Amino acid sequence: MLIKEEKKVAIKKEKDVIRQEMDTIKKKKDVIKQEKDDVVIKQEKDVIIKQEKDVVIKQEENEDSFEFNSSTEESTNKKRKKSSNKKSLNKRPKSFWTKEEDQALFDAVTSFVNGRWKDVCSKDSSLTERGPRMVYQRWNTKSKYFLGANVGK
């Protein structure tokens, strides 16, 4: 019986040690969880502060731009002139191809078979205005029509 009681006491001591270890592990987990929560809260605060700073900066920029835009009409006119200059850099306004241009393209392509689109453009003044690239693209998109329309003539 003495041996049984000693075993019970030893088992009880082991259980107490295990409980203590479990308690310390649980406390460590709680500390780690609290640290994670603190980090998350700090990150959220940093994000909120950054967003608030961004809003303040945007408001300041908007106020500055508003003052700049409303200061004088000359500044807006200068802006408009600059933007209109950018649009008109060597670009022709978009327009549809006329029948005369199509016919000139067909005549030029049939007379210049060498494949140099610059030479094809130089054949007619309307094609010169269009440019070699545009003439090439028009021929590629309409060549079946040109060839089919003139085959029966």
List the helices and strands and how they pair.
Layout: H1 2-71, H2 73-87, H3 99-111, H4 117-122, H5 125-130, H6 132-151
Task: Write up this protein.
The structure is a single chain. With 153 residues, this protein is an all-alpha fold. Among the domains are: 43 residues; 49 residues. The protein contains 6 helices and no strands. The longest helix is centred in the N-terminal third of the chain and has 70 residues. The radius of gyration is 42 Å and the shape is elongated. The termini are far apart. This is Myb-like domain-containing protein. It comes from Rhizophagus irregularis. InterPro entries: Homeodomain-like_sf, SANT/Myb.
Provide tags for this entry:
153 residues; mainly alpha; elongated
How many β strands by DSSP?
0
Radius of gyration, in Å, reads 42 Å
Question: How much β-strand is present in the residues?
Answer: under 5%
What's the N-to-C terminus distance? 126 Å
* Structure classification: mainly alpha
Helix content: over 70%
Summarize the helix and strand pattern as letters: HHHHHH
- Poorly predicted residue ranges: 66-76, 83-89
**Helix tally?**
6
The average pLDDT score comes to 76
Shape: elongated
